[in-house]
């Protein structure tokens, strides 16, 4: 209130809205006027406009008699543009640059907030602006000068070759037939810069007549800036409440759709997504993700969403495969579309993709060649189908990308049964279309077994061992009593005193055998977890090997580790296990190493043979497995490069990636000698990879 008292109202002004020049009034913003430019020289000025684009070109005269005008420069520019000859096509007929062209560009796309105001006799008259254009000098005459220069050079290079020689020249013509333009290609062409430039160039110029500032016609047009009537009927827009009037002056900013950046068709923010109906939300999510568990779908839809409504909607756009929802083929390939690779219609693509989905309902693995042989589609289309819902595994095929969702299957048995009936109908259609054989309908035994891993976890293996010990405890007790009776009846010299002998029930060793199946699948030597199941290897008693057997295993393992690190000075645990599997495959059945070697035993033996673990600081976002992050190196090999190798390993214990020149400088400083390129290469070759 104090501020309002200090700032009293001095004068009240009536405001009127003029409508005579509505949608006709433009504001031109000129650049700073040079001293030699005369804007009011009407005899040498022309104007033209493209109304749809709101583009204006003005041609203004330059005062060549002005002392600030450089006449020699003007003559040189006119000579470069028009040459020596003067005709109707010349830009500068006076052989002097005596005019300048200005071209406009839009200063603001939304001018609804701007108006031209005229104050007269205590009244303020406002006229809304239709456009604000900035005028900038146009230098198209320089392009014309360059074109003339190129024409002169081409004429000079041509020499005095005659027209007959040119006519005798025979040129080979290549005829190409364009493919039918797809809808996507047409949209890209329409949105291209070249197409927009062509459309703009097609609009014809409308020539205008310029009236000077003091011309009588200009005076007459300026009168339209004033409101023609002061009655209430003419200014109903200004009879508003204070809040409405303020809203008119400063409306809330709403971006036009044309001003928004064009986002890709498959990009939609979560805020925009949740404004759509539930069915559309689910369709968009499934179309983009393609395979999704029901729990993930519910989390994306937000809290408070009815699960029953989601289940009802998701069944319209997706099918259940191994407890997970996979988007339907007709959603990805709508009617009247075709393959971008082969041009095959959408109906054929849907049948092929349905066959792939149906195969995954039968098994976790699908072979790409089998799909291509049945569907008769090109490899690119088949690869697209498989990439939608599976992951390629080397030498195995394509595995369904998500694990079997048992929780959903247990919670919703009615939906599972309904989906099974749908798949039975789809299978019947596929049998008719593709003439499926019996081998296609029933999953292979080998494939069915491959769905379950051969290697169990360490915790499962310990539990299985405990259960086996408890199960066989009674049998072991009977066998022990039988042995005691036999020992008592035997000869005195051969008797063994076994008083109060009992079999102690101990838990199986927590030291799990080394996981070797990942590297030994391709060996075809009957190995499972490093063991020959058919041969009689030494059996551990209650999880422990006999003492003599342990010594032999340790000796054999130490010999393998020593020989391996003498050949390759630096190894990861993953690579060492792979080499150990190859070594096992070369051994005869029943060898002591088949008794089971754990990861801990292997790592302890590596450290016992003089090797050290190098703690390489790998980046946190690395995709390497834990075994690949464990690096071991032979610290002393007894050769001349021990010191260099140790310096190099110290370097890599601080950074996992180092430049070659840094390594060479560090080796020279630490070892006190300059190593040549061959010596550095040898140290690097055995210690790291580039």
Automatic annotation (TrEMBL):
Name of the protein this chain belongs to: RPC5 polymerase
Species for this entry: Pteruthius melanotis
Biological processes, Gene Ontology terms: tRNA transcription by RNA polymerase III
Region (Disordered): 146-169, 481-519
Chain coiled-coil ranges: none
Highest taxon of source: Eukaryota
A GO cellular-component term linked to this record: RNA polymerase III complex
Gene for this chain: Polr3e
DNA-directed RNA polymerase III subunit RPC5 C-terminal domain span: 444-690
Biased composition (Basic and acidic residues): 146-155
Bilayer-crossing regions: none
